[in-house]
Write a structure and sequence with these properties.
The chain is α/β, with parallel strands linked by helices. About 30% of the residues lie in helices and about 15% in strands. The protein has helices at about 25-40, 65-75, 90-100, 110-120, 170-175, 190-200, 215-225, 260-270, 285-295, and strands at about 15, 45-50, 85, 105-110, 145-150, 155-160, 165-170, 175-180, 205, 230-235, 235-240, 305. The strands form five sheets. Strands 1-2-3 form a three-stranded parallel sheet. It has a three-stranded antiparallel sheet with strand order 4-5-8.
């Protein structure tokens, strides 16, 4: 295993922001968008927008359109058309078929209850490390419910540009992970790897809530023979209880009427030290200041930062 290089050379940068339409954008989403956007601009690169709507049961009607409208209202500009994962199912199926044909993916008959009863320890992301029950074949009379990717008993990971070394012993820390779920939906891990390769993403700047997925994605990239991007995981914003801002923790939706204040607040959260009076400026002035003063080295090198006042 070799760690991915932390450098991001100018002129060879393509980043992306990939929200899921499970609700409106909130301050935590804005932090990720601002960080990825400004890092792309600092490298003279492209910034793409992808709508990660592959998990159809969780999508909220109208949320995707609302997200795009909010990004436009806040002054974000992206290159090319928005990529919709819901229109990419054939690509995910083709990737899964390739992995099946090479014996890297296998059918799994286990229910959640059975996994919970058989698993010996938790996975690094808070779930359960799959115990490999169906690795050698399906139990007699049991059809495949999901499809999993075989992982090696090896260390895989990367040198994160912000967080440092991110390494996992895949078999121990996560186990063989799901590519297609029992309900027929393609899993995030497969979709994100296929789409990053399709869009030729060189740099992934996203929230640290996804950092534990990175070694799995790097192994899957290796299996599919596609390039591994450079990674930088920004600290996630948490409330006073230490919970990540999200729909589940009732994070308020971004209000474009307070856009200047929220944008400057996001810059401050990212360690950029904007002047207080900048919040009274218009979006063009704020973005001009942000691009001119962006300092990657000033980003907090931690996985989470609590917001003052919750």
């Amino acid at each position: 295993m070799s760690l991915t290089a932390p450098d991001s050379p100018p002129g060879n940068y393509r980043g992306r922001f990939a929200p899921s339409p499970t609700g409106p954008l909130h301050f935590g989403s804005l932090v990720a968008a601002v960080g990825s956007y400004l890092d792309a601009r600092a490298h003279g690169g492209e910034w793409l927008v992808r709508m990660e709507d592959v998990d159809a049961p969780r999508n909220v009607p109208g949320a995707a359109e609302g997200i795009l409208a909010t990004l436009e209202a806040f002054g974000f500009e992206w290159q090319g058309e928005v990529l919709w994962q819901s229109q990419r199912l054939e690509a995910y199926q083709a990737a899964l078929a390739e992995l099946k044909s090479r014996g890297l993916a296998y059918g799994c008959a286990c229910s959640r209850k059975e996994i919970a009863e058989a698993a010996s320890h938790p996975a690094v992301d808070g779930g359960l490390a799959y115990p490999g029950t169906c690795r050698a074949g399906l139990p007699p009379g049991r059809p495949a419910r999901a499809w999993r990717l075989r992982v090696p008993d090896e260390d895989w990971g990367c040198e994160d540009r912000l967080q440092g070394a991110v390494i996992q012993r895949l078999e121990r820390d996560v186990g063989d992970f799901v590519l297609r779920r029992a309900d027929g939906q393609f899993a995030y891990q497969l979709a994100v790897v296929v789409d990053d390769a399709f869009q030729e993403i060189t740099d992934v700047v996203r929230g640290a809530d996804l950092i534990d997925s990175t070694p799995r994605q790097i192994w899957l990239q290796h299996c599919l023979g596609v390039a591994t991007p450079r990674y930088a995981h920004l600290p996630v914003a948490t409330n006073a209880a230490g919970e990540k801002l999200s729909k589940q923790t009732r994070a308020p939706a971004l209000d474009p009427a307070r856009g200047g204040t929220e944008l400057v607040r996001a810059l401050a959260f990212l360690g950029q030290q904007p002047p207080a009076e900048l919040a009274r400026a218009g979006f063009p002035e704020i973005w001009q200041w942000a691009r001119a003063h962006w300092r990657f080295e000033a980003l907090p090198r931690q996985r989470a930062v609590a917001l003052s006042g919750g």
